[in-house]
Task: structure prediction
Amino acid sequence: MIYLTKSLTLPPNCNLTDTRFIIDGVSNIVLDLNGSTLSSDGFNSAIFISSSAASQTNYVTVKNGTLKGYGTAIFVHRDFTTQEFADLKNDPEGLWPSIQATAPHHINFENLNIQQPKGTGVYVWVGASYVLINQCIIDGARGPAVYLDMGSHHNTISNSTFSNGGFLNADGTPRTGRGRREAIAVDGSYSNVITGNTITGNAGGGIHLYSNCGEHVSSDPTYVPRIFDAEYNELDGNYVVNNGTTGGAVEIGKRVDWNLESWDCAKPLYQQYLSFKYYWDNSGFNTVKSTTGDGEIFVRTDNNTLTSNQQTVTVNSLVRTLAGDPLIGNLVS
Result:
């Protein structure tokens, strides 16, 4: 485990096993892997970038290398104290601005090749912002290739390739049904740009935008209130092809029509039919344009703009229709 306190360029083309780089409370540094390969059969992250209220991390670049295996290969993290978790539950709107202000920001990942992580390729946790993923390859992630979690914002995913992911659980057993994952998950993350990427061969779909229902509120000690929606995101010029049959090439409001009765949701119930429970999703004001490839683009929320896409665009929600609450404000051309 290597704690970086200043910029580092590795010797060219090293092969390192079970090596982890921790960047915590440090700013304005560059980690240049310089063609090296980091490999691990374990479940830790290869690159762990973290920040806290007491010690911020920003303006960090990691570039030019290969990561094979690990758990979640790259984790951009904001550390919470026990008191912060409690305060967030009591007053999320009051505390979130300070959480976002002290989460990592301006973190760049460039020219990285991430192969077969047991979890997500790049996980951008709650509150982080201005994370750039550019000219990267993520192949065979067991979870999504990229996960933008709630309250993260102004991130950019560009000119990258995400392939063959979402088929397996972390333990290597097959994912089934709704458990099969998409390449890019935008979970209550806003004002992001996703542009010029190739997304192919993933189990559960391409790019999915949604608002988490606040799942596992009773059982997860690290639960944070889900007060943000997947809004004001721009998807432009992505090639999305051959990404399974369980999800769309692009989905806005991915979980609107999902029965979430067993998910222990914190948000107010929107509709219930028998024991089936459905939750509202305010994710909107997103733009999807110039998408090519195959599959379908599904829209199940209000106020989105879709232009010049090769795929069929379907604007419909079964639950909203049954509730007599039609979708509004979506523009398709």
Remarks:
- The chain has a mean pLDDT of 97.
- The longest strand covers residues 29-40.
- The chain has three helices and 30 strands.
